[in-house]
């Protein structure tokens, strides 16, 4: 390890090099010259202070930059280790999503296009499983320079997320409370859903009944159900809540509110098979917009957060690392179906 300290000291003579830059470049030079190899443990912060004479803040800042660049990783209670000898690689970012559905894909594609090739993005999916979520967060902690996470609603979520550095963390999509001052770009469900229902009231009243499909223990935000129940009560709308759409069960004179694309496609297939005119014989309101819903059957009425905008703001956060706390607006897009 003596040769590593020498590599750091060699840079003292270079004009304009700060102690922080000496430390980082010294380690990079040591890796490039094979003095350090993958798996090697780095000196502790206290040893670095003693050997270099640098301030603790300088050492910590240098190690953090090497982590952000994906060169070293921190193992809790064990110290710092060389994790990658590709010293020219870009900043590494961990992106944790629910699953790769159409909405998450919209976010990912826009986010990726704005960051590549300067940022390396590794994607993980927790599929609404709290144990999987915990395992992912535990495994990526200390190994990335930035963490962009879609959390899941669960009592353990805040405890799981606390291992991530808040200044390098961005919560997206759903908001889950946790300790500390952290950045987020999320959507709001209850007030926005209620507002959308009210905007569609006159059209909804053209139908005999409103049917909402919501499976118990699904990933559907509970705030949407609260908004729906408040709306039908406030405006005396006849309604039903069903677990799922049964193929062939489409009824004339009903307006359907669906949050699952698979069920939506089945309903549209039945609409065509039964010869129903969408928007007249039956009405459909779907959550979350995408290009297909804009054109299929003359257009499906949707309400959705702008995930393209969310991606743009998330990418800006990664590049600037300036704190952001914002709720992305929800937009109603009225089309043929309602």
From TrEMBL:
GO terms for molecular function: DNA binding; DNA-binding transcription factor activity. PANTHER family: GNTR-FAMILY TRANSCRIPTIONAL REGULATOR (PTHR38445:SF10), HTH-TYPE TRANSCRIPTIONAL REPRESSOR YTRA (PTHR38445). Keywords: DNA-binding, Transcription, Transcription regulation. It comes from the Bacteria. This is GntR family transcriptional regulator. InterPro entries: LacI/GalR-like_sensor, Peripla_BP_I, Tscrpt_reg_HTH_GntR, WH-like_DNA-bd_sf, WH_DNA-bd_sf. Residues 17-85 form the HTH gntR-type domain.
